[in-house]
Every structure is written in C-alpha cells, then in structure tokens.
C-alpha cells in the first residue's frame, strides 16, 4: 500500500485528499516508479478545477515527477530497477508516492541532474525550450515581451531568451517581483499594476512593438499583448493564469498582420525521439547555467492543497516541488 492525493470531484484545493491506495502493478511495456520529487504547475490547478478535462474522477492530479524504477513490466527494454528517471505526461497522476508509467515516456536522468531539478523543470523547461526554438525561433535581433516574468515559466523564458541574445521586456505584478525578473536577465521590467504596459513597450521600442510576445497570463493581458506586438509580429498565448482568453474575432490581427499561436508542449514531445531531444536540450541549458530550477518553495506531498493555494494566489516565485 502507498498514499496519493485523490480527488473525487472538481473544485478548489479542498478537494485534494491524502489517501491510502493499492500499489499499482506494471503491465506490458510499463514501469513502476517510486516518486522522489514532484513538480507543481498551473495546469494542475486547471485539471483540479475541471477547466482541462484531462482526468477521470476519482483521480490523482500532477503532470511531472522524478523517481526511481522499482519494477518492470513485460517487454520493457533500456531500463532497469534502480534507474533514476523523470517524466512529463498528459495523463495526470504524479501526486502519488508510487505510480505506473509507460516506459517510452520516461527520460533517464544524468548523474548531474538532481531529482528536484528534474521534477521542477521537466514541464516548464521543455515548454520554454519549445516556445523559444519551435513555436517561434527567437534570435539575438528580437525584442521580446514576457508576461509574468517572475513566475516559474517566466523566469526560465527570460533567462533563456537573454542567453540567445534577445532584448527582454518583462512584466511583473509588484516591485518585489521586479528584481527577480531583472536578476533573471530582463533588460526592462514593467510593473503592470503601476504602469501601462503597452505604452512602456512603445517607449522602449521606439513605437515598433515586440516581434515576439509570450503570454501565459491569458484573459488579463491578451488585449495588452495585441497592442504591444509589432507589425508582422507573433503573439504566443500559452496559458490561462488569469482565466481563459475570451473568443477572438481574428480580424483584429489583420491591421498588423499578426500571427497568433496557442501552443502546449505535449504535441511537440509526442514522439520519443522528440521527447529525448527536447530533454537533452534542457539538460544542456541547465549545465551551462542558462536556466536554473530556482526551487523557492517545497511542500510535503500530503500538503498539495496548500501548494495549490500558494500558486493560485501568486504568493510563489520560481518553482514548487512536492516531496513524498
């Protein structure tokens, strides 16, 4: 027997219950893992609330974790008991002491990548790698606007974009978070509660706007992003931290000939070769010091509800990790 966070209904953090359950048994081409570190992401909140219908109830939330292989199902090759691995998946279930995973979704962890770092960065880090190198190819000539630059994804985006050589404008919600964005490499930080973001972008860019805008906030920033994007620019809306973007008449894109994307990482890593390539690019960036895990909050797995409350209230910076 082991324990897991289980919810029987969608709703607020209070639906996350710490319960005992039977240990899962791996089937063909599956692996049983003992989790050592579990990542917490905004998508977990969307799943918990039912905004993203990715989990059958009763179910266990969580999309990423690191752990140790405990047993192998028939047909598994390339892994052995005791191997350290990490994963990110479209199938929730990582908020658990143990779980079964398809072997081809697991990424072997190099010795120089810790379990906490992997758990904190598999989803966010691979998301950032794809956003900067696949959804749109950022270059040293670009001026980029990154909303919520002091958040988990925002800090990684800012640091990686600066490593590419781009000029980064970051938005934050408070003066306290402004220093975090600056420390990550933002050339300009705009406190959105005190300044008009679109006007500041116009000042900084001489009226041209930004070729690339990375917007993980959603409803509260979408109109600002439309104003701040450059002619022939690309608005990349990849999250709903403030709520879903309302329906958009695509004619609003026409005056500037704007490209609009709504990506997520999972289609980019659906093939195992792409998964391993993206993970290796992330590990290389970690080794070079381009991105850091910045784990500023940890919670016992049993207190996952409190982690959700902190994240939803934007009381957190950097990454959150749960420990079983």
TrEMBL record:
Keywords: NADP, Oxidoreductase
GO molecular function: quinone reductase (NADPH) activity
Enzyme class, UniProt record, top EC level: oxidoreductase
Protein EC: 1.6.5.5
Taxonomy, superkingdom: Bacteria
Domain Enoyl reductase (ER): start-end pairs: 11-322
Pfam families: ADH_N (PF08240), ADH_zinc_N (PF00107)
PANTHER family linked: QUINONE OXIDOREDUCTASE PIG3-RELATED, QUINONE OXIDOREDUCTASE-RELATED
Name of protein: NADPH2:quinone reductase
Organism from which the protein derives: Rhodopseudomonas julia
């Amino acid at each position: 027997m082991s324990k897991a966070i289980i919810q029987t209904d969608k709703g607020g953090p209070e639906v996350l219950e710490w319960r005992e359950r039977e240990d899962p048994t791996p089937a063909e081409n599956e692996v049983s893992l003992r989790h050592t570190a579990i990542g917490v992401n905004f998508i977990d909140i969307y799943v918990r609330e039912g905004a993203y219908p990715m989990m059958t109830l009763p179910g266990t939330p969580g999309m990423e974790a690191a752990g140790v292989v405990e047993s192998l199902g028939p047909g598994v090759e390339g892994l052995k008991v005791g191997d350290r691995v990490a994963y990110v998946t479209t199938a929730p279930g990582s908020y658990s002491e143990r779980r079964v995973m398809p072997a081809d979704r697991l990424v072997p962890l190099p010795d120089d990548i810790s379990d906490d770092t992997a758990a904190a960065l598999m989803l966010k880090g691979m998301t950032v790698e794809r956003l900067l190198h696949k959804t749109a190819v950022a270059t040293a000539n670009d001026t980029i606007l990154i909303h919520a630059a002091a958040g988990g994804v925002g800090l990684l985006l800012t640091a990686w974009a600066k490593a590419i050589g781009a000029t980064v404008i970051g938005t934050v919600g408070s003066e306290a978070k402004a220093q975090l964005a600056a420390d990550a490499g933002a050339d300009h930080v705009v406190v959105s509660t005190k300044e008009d973001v679109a006007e500041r972008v116009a000042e900084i860019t001489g009226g041209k706007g930004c070729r690339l805008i990375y917007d993980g906030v959603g409803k509260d920033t979408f109109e600002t992003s439309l104003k701040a994007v450059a002619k022939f620019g690309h608005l990349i809306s990849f999250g709903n931290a403030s709520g879903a973007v309302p329906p958009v008449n695509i004619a609003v894109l026409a005056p500037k000939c704007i490209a609009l994307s709504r990506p997520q990482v999972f289609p980019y890593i659906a093939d195992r070769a792409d998964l391993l390539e993206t993970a290796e690019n992330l590990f290389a960036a970690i080794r070079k010091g381009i991105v850091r895990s910045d784990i500023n909050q940890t919670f016992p797995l049993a207190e996952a509800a409190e982690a959700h409350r902190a994240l939803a209230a934007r009381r957190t910076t950097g990454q959150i990790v749960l420990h079983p």
